[in-house]
Amino acid sequence: MSVAEYIWPQPPKGNYRGSQKASRPAPDPLLTQTGPETPCGKYLRMFWWPIGMTSEVPDDLPHKTKLLGEDLVLFKTRQGEYGCLHLNCSHRNTSLEFGHVTECGIRCCYHGWEYAVDGTILDTPGEPAGSKIKERVFHGAYPVVEFKGLLFVYMGPQEWMPEFPVYDTFNLADDELVPYSISYPANWLQIAENTTDPYHTVFLHANHSIDHFEESWGEMPVIDWHEHENGRHTCNLCTFRWKDKIWVRVYETFFPSFSQVGSFFETAEDEKYFQRAAITKWTVPVDDTSTKISAWRHFGKAIDSDNLGRRELVGKDTVDFLGQTADRPYEDRQRIPSDYEAQVGQGLVAVHGTENLGHTDRGVAILRKNLRAGIERVQNGEPPVRPPQNGQEVPSYCSDSVLPIPEIPGVDDEELRRQVAHAVVDVLRSADDMPRDERVTFVKSELEKLKDRPEFTQAKLAS
Ligand code: FES
Ligand SMILES: [Fe+2]
């Protein structure tokens, strides 16, 4: 048909208003910009961050990396100490990724300046005897802690440095921590928000694509939140009715972005109490448009009694559950999208001004509220709320408990589940100050008692 023959049949039906939304506002700079001069960057620098895996740092070669927008080099001295320095040499900026690792530091390839792990200049071999340059200059350096295959750095002012927080899930019996990392071409916040958005598991992982998980996951959970009164973490409480049991799944996020998630092989068929994390992870801002999850997968009898996890798939840019990377064919990712597609699909930096937050987004709102509060504290010269600084393991709440509490005729089951979930958290909260082993015993026995509480049993009807 030629253009001349084309006849406009009738205007398309519908209320088309794309032109009203064609221009997009800018992303929220307060929460998404992480450089050293930004308010959020200053706040984030008050915490320890995983910067990489020990397996990424060879014994005799430096490893170039980046965190919070700063170019850095990681290395291991011949004496076995880890160092993290600004990447570019303090002499004339050559990259220290080409430096030589020395007995107690690293030496720049260009003119041989040598740096200790704290940035002290040890040697300036081209300078004349008596040169004071190495006393006058220091190089940017950050302290490093190695823990179970991950390397952590603290990038804030030394006088504000907190204890390195060892959470109670770092040293469990029958539990092996296997490090992994995943990279995302997107801002850190939208990656961190995924864990505070439990509703997505029902839609993205069960109902709307394929069942990524067990059958019990497709049930719509009752979802509620618990914000710890000290402001250091928030929990999503996902409570499923599965046959004659109530499955309470507690996800948590310690601000800004340390989070833990329970087993993804949970079937909720068997009674259980306080089964701990399957994933312990930090969502790490690399720069404002790239993010890394640095994490451990937990393996062993305590979390995976049927040995369903696949340790051989866990490492750099790989983990043993579907859809966490871009390494699938594009059509597969379209047909069976998962977390990676949903998160990266929000754009390089998700624009809050074009969102319409609803009922399902309460966890996201809680996260953003607490991040803003932390940023404000730091702007006011106070430290942000951080895990307790008392030399003890930090009690965390991430857990799955499956309680034999059947439906009660005449009682709203959603309300029953909500009450059970909060009863579970009350038990956890009451044990915050106990030593680890005592706490675990106490929590399990108190959770086991919940099924006999009159308000959770048929006895309620008789009253
Ligand atoms: S640039 Fe590094 S020593 Fe000269
Ligand atoms: Fe997910």
Structure at a glance:
This protein has eleven helices and 20 strands. It is α+β, with helices and mostly antiparallel strands.
What order do the helices and strands come in, and which of them pair?
Elements: H1 29-32, H2 39-44, E1 48-53, E2 63-67, E3 70-76, E4 82-86, E5 100-101, E6 105-107, E7 114-116, E8 121-123, H3 133-136, E9 141-142, E10 144-147, E11 150-154, E12 176-184, H4 188-193, H5 199-207, E13 222-227, E14 233-242, E15 245-254, E16 258-261, E17 272-275, E18 279-287, E19 290-299, H6 330-335, H7 339-344, H8 362-379, E20 399-403, H9 413-430, H10 436-449, H11 459-462
Antiparallel strand pairs: 1-11, 2-3, 3-4, 4-9, 5-6, 6-7, 7-8, 10-11, 12-19, 13-14, 14-15, 15-16, 15-20, 16-18, 17-20, 18-19
The chain binds FE2/S2 (inorganic) cluster (FES) and fe (ii) ion (FE2).
The site of FE2/S2 (inorganic) cluster has 9 residues, from loops.
Describe what you observe in this structure.
This protein has 463 residues and is of the alpha+beta class. The chain has two domains: 48-160, Rieske Iron-sulfur Protein (3-layer Sandwich); 176-462, no CATH class. It contains eleven helices and 20 strands. It has helices at residues 29-32, 39-44, 133-136, 188-193, 199-207, 330-335, 339-344, 362-379, 413-430, 436-449, 459-462; strands at residues 48-53, 63-67, 70-76, 82-86, 100-101, 105-107, 114-116, 121-123, 141-142, 144-147, 150-154, 176-184, 222-227, 233-242, 245-254, 258-261, 272-275, 279-287, 290-299, 399-403. Strands 12, 13, 14, 15, 16, 17, 18, 19 and 20 form a nine-stranded antiparallel β-sheet that branches. Strands 2-3-4-9 form a four-stranded antiparallel β-sheet, with no helix packed on it. The protein has a four-stranded antiparallel β-sheet with strand order 5-6-7-8, with no helix packed on it. Strand 14 (233-242) and strand 15 form a beta hairpin. The chain is globular, with a radius of gyration of 26 Å. The termini are far apart. The relative contact order is 0.14. The model has no long low-confidence stretch (mean pLDDT 93). Bound molecules: FE2/S2 (inorganic) cluster (FES) and fe (ii) ion. FE2/S2 (inorganic) cluster is lined by residues 89, 91-92, 94, 108, 110-113.
